[in-house]
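User: Show me a protein chain along with its predicted structure.
Assistant: Here is one chain, sequence first, then structure tokens.
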Amino acid sequence: MSSIRLHETKGVNPKLCFCPRCANDNGEIALPGADDRVWECTSCNVRHYGRKLSGGCPECHFSLTLSHRLGEHEKVPGSLCDDCKQREDDCNAEVRAGGVFWRCTSCGSEGAIKADSQLATLVREHFNAPPPAPVGCEFSDADCPVCGPNPVVS
């Protein structure tokens, strides 16, 4: 069982949470108590909420610097919302069926290429990754289906 260090004036200091993928409310409440700080990595700009980690950034292990203390009505990241969980489940099912994960290095969009597409077949052959093994590719703004010159509407 974990304990909460109480904030000197706000007690458990409740904060509403948002989905880290789409930024919509997810119905969760976080109780940071006195651990109401936001730390930022000096290398990869990842944000960490709460106590400063002794090992540095959880992603790249560089040092964390204090960005700010949480504001009165500032929301914090929580779990994926129901819509994003469903989308993730759908993508995972498509990849298990032979599809391919994709993400864009420019806009951060991500999804799954359908199993019956020629691109999915070529990517799987190139990486010698038969289904249900996961495999993925990256796009840039030159070819991204979201931010590229030929956006795909789904």
